[in-house]
Design goal:
Blueprint (H helix, E strand, L loop, with lengths): L3 E5 L11 H6 L1 H14 L3 H7 L2 H5 L1 H22 L4 E6 L3 H8 L5 H20 L3 E7 L3 H13 L4 E8 L2 E7 H13 L4 E4 L12 H13 L9 E2 L10 H10 L7 H10 L4 E5 L4 H9 L4 E5 L2 H12 L9
Helix pairs in contact: 2-5, 2-7, 5-6, 5-7, 6-7, 7-10, 8-9, 10-11
Length: 321
């Protein structure tokens, strides 16, 4: 297969049963979750297999679960297929999976940070009354205008994600989000949907998580990426280990510039990507940015097998890999 970008999903992609079929079929995937159990001291796979939805959806569990699933897929592809990555990026939490992919951070150390990140963000959620809402069908500039006016009125609200031309996510105190959602609908938003999240991610309400995670990130060994890596905070390629460290900390309270990342991948001439992990959120966001950029979700055993068949099938004018 020609080179592609590797994209990694973030929190919200989790679903009961995720990764189970992959672990049962591939020893490489099983080894990732077994290693994760040793690092964390708990069996995340068992939560995926037999836990409750509420347990899996907790920030403490969902973040390491998604990370482990993404790395498990990565290891399976590394072992079974030769697919060189031209670039890597991850949505929010997915940045840690991407950093493992580009060999900037070791798996075990990244997992430890992810677990702490989930714990500290859950604590920040528990100590504040925050939420998020997805704004559909309103241009970004108009969303920014409405949010700026709300902030000027004293509302604790901001933009959390620039996901696509058609989707922007706002984050803040519950009352502020409710008021701003009404204003956005009045401004012409097709829909403004309250998200089922524990708190106001990527907002100043996560400040305590930033402070608690800071000393751990300062100790994290980060190397220069072996493959181009794109940061959430800037939306641009980042090569400096110290800038990566800084951005991982800034990311907790600042917007994710995902659309900008996707547009830069397009500008580099990359036309295909794999979404490694649960769900197909990133594939949907890319369709809103460009119909010419094809994202293939790879998170289940069936999807891995389908990808393998496509790689092995001879294409017109090309030999099979």
């Amino acid at each position: 297969m020609d080179s592609v970008a590797f994209l990694f999903p973030g929190q919200g992609a989790q679903v009961l049963g995720m990764a189970v079929d992959l672990v049962d079929a591939y020893p490489e995937a099983r080894a990732v979750f077994e290693a994760g159990k040793k690092v964390l001291g708990r069996d995340i796979l068992e939560v995926c297999r037999a836990g409750s939805e509420a347990e899996l959806n907790s920030t403490r569990i969902s973040q390491p679960a998604i990370f482990l699933h993404s790395v498990a897929v990565l290891r399976v592809l590394d072992e079974t297929m030769e697919i060189p990555a031209l670039a890597a990026a991850g949505l929010s939490l997915g940045e840690y999976s991407a950093l493992v992919c580009v060999r900037s951070v070791e798996f075990a150390e990244a997992l430890q940070i992810v677990a702490l990140r989930g714990e500290y963000m859950q604590e920040a959620c528990d100590s504040s009354s925050g939420t998020m809402a997805s704004v559909i069908g309103l241009k970004v500039a108009r969303v920014e205008e409405v949010v700026a006016r709300a902030r000027a009125d004293g509302l604790n609200i901001g933009i959390a994600n620039y996901n696509s031309p058609d989707q922007t996510v706002i984050s803040g105190e519950v009352g502020a989000v409710d008021v701003t959602v009404k204003r956005l609908e009045e401004a012409g938003a097709r829909r403004a949907i309250r998200l089922k999240v524990a708190g106001a991610y990527h907002s100043p309400l996560m400040a305590s998580a930033t402070q608690k995670l800071r000393p751990h990130l300062e100790k994290l060994a980060i190397r220069a990426p072996k493959v181009p890596f794109y940061s959430n905070v800037t939306g641009a390629e980042t090569t400096s280990p110290e800038q990566i460290r800084k951005n991982l900390l800034l990311q907790i309270e600042n917007p994710v510039r995902w659309e900008q990342t996707l547009r830069l991948l397009l500008a580099r001439g990359i036309g295909r990507a794999l979404e490694l992990g649960p769900g197909r959120v990133l594939a949907g966001l890319m369709r809103s940015v460009s119909r010419e950029f094809h994202v293939v979700p790879v998170g289940t055993c069936e999807q891995v097998n389908s990808l393998s068949r496509k790689i092995c099938e001879p294409q017109e004018g090309k030999s099979a890999v």
